[in-house]
Amino acid sequence: MLQLEQQKLGVSEPASIFDLSRGERRLAEIARRNGIPFVGMGDAFRRNVPEQLYLTPILQDGHLSALGQSVVAHTVAEYLYQQRLLPSNNFRTNSL
Asked: What are residue 17's phi and psi, to 5 degrees?
């Protein structure tokens, strides 16, 4: 059964099935190859309590909570600032 899952996911090592950052790395590579800027959220999300980043478990549909949206907004703003695409006088660096 594990071998079938490995084949479906295109991985050779069992441990890579549980690599939570694999999808983000793959998207980043596709974006890079196509010249599309990519802002990964993995690190920002790992710095927070996962249960607080999404709406209540009743919904369980992956929609972000207010905190989750704030984390995404801050991460994107930080990227824009670092790329000099956001005026410095309108940006405050305060980590979530």
From this structure: -65, -30
* Number of domains observed in the structure of the chain: 2
Kindly report whether the global pTM for this prediction surpasses the value 0.85. no
Distance CA 70, CA 72 (A): 5
Tens of pLDDT, residue by residue over 44-72, are: 988 988 778 888 766 667 788 899 999 99
Same domain, 27 and 53: no
Give the range of the structural domain holding residue 53, as residue numbers without chain letter: 48-96
What is residue 13's DSSP assignment? S
Q: Which residue has tokens 């590579």?
A: 29
